[in-house]
Amino acid sequence: MKSLSRESVKTTKYLLANINGIEINLIMPSQYAREQKCFLTYKTSKIHKYYGKGSVKERAFNYFKTIEDKSIKEPIVIAHLMELFKEDILNIRNEIANEEAPQEIDTNSNVVVALKSFYAYKELQHKEGSVSRGSLYGYKHHQRKLELYFNLAANKSLRLSDLDASTWQNYRVNLLNDTNGFGKGKLKNSSVNQHFQYIHQFYSWLVDYLEIPIKNHLKKLNKLSEAKGDRRFKVIDDATLKDFYHILETYEKYYFTRLYLSALFLYENNVRLSEQVLIQAKDIDLQQSTVRIINNKGSRTRLIRVSPKVKELIEMIRDKTIKHGIEVTDEMYLIGGHDMFKKGIPHGHKELAVVMRRFRKKYPQFAGRTLYEHKHTSITKQFNSGVDHYQIKQRADHSSIKTTEIYLEQSKVVKPFELKLDE
């Protein structure tokens, strides 16, 4: 028989069960592992981690303490572990059975069951390539809040036939006020509108895809005004802004190259971080100083002209990649680790936030500053400099001029058109 455990620097894996080809393993951290996480894991359509509300770690650690000074053969250890986690394995077996037997959705289906089926459909779309990884990440965020809300005691028994406009009105109020503490705080109007776009898709799936006779109750709710929402961003003052770019240009251009490039993309061209990570070598024309941008929100494309400094930073990333013996191909991504082009799949835009945190740690005067503030600062300064609103809208790639005008400072005073009597 082959060895049932696999040693590694960080963890040891113990095979405890095999259910129709699905392995259930106990992951035990070594004493050298930075994170002492212990859990049962299994893989169906995705990888699951089962912690047993913390009891898996406690029981596993206690067991291994009892055999610390004893010489026990591995098959005996595994037999002990199988007995120790017998109830947990049974729970996982039931979870696998429920996942493998999808329920048919109709008007009598529980809302949470229907939502889970809808998200599984979105995952399937992602596998076939019609939904991007970034979009699926956003859907997961919306799905989590929906499941938490409809798992509340007052909503747990709701069926699809019980839904009406007031259900969604109450849910919207919940998001705006963070009534049940599902997130980090209250959501702004624009974020709630994005959240409800996902629910619109849920209804489309029910009505058009499954052909369930149900009304789209969201049609009775007006979209929240984004222009009237409170400003969600801070504007960087001139001194801090100049200090930031002076440090990057003078001292950190070769160590924080992608941070410098990302900040300039935001400030000069208003390119979103989620768009920056999708830029590939084939999108860049250094001779014409242009970059093709894919709008991750709507899969549109636009062509931007970049400044000489942005061009210089792109060339630095290209040259460093070649210097390390890596040929830059059309499919490689501009934003990669070690300030080089990246093969395979793109980075998540949160990776750039990690780089910004490293920079802030080195330069504490920028504590609390975020990359996205460079875009907000740029648009605000454009307004204050008298740049045409529609030109700003085009540069920022906003779908509506109302979105652009959110950035317009309320304190901006409009000069009077004076009547001159001596003319």
Question: How are the elements arranged and paired?
Answer:
Elements: E1 5-7, E2 11-19, E3 22-29, E4 39-43, E5 47-50, H1 55-66, H2 74-84, H3 86-100, H4 111-128, H5 133-150, H6 165-177, H7 189-209, H8 238-250, H9 257-269, H10 273-276, E6 284-285, E7 290-295, E8 300-305, H11 308-323, H12 350-362, H13 373-384, H14 389-396, H15 401-404
Antiparallel strand pairs: 1-2, 2-3, 3-4, 4-5, 6-7, 7-8
Explain what this protein looks like in three dimensions.
The protein contains 15 helices and eight strands. Residues 1-8 have low confidence and may be disordered. The protein is α+β, with helices and mostly antiparallel strands and 423 residues long. Helix 9 runs parallel beside helix 13.
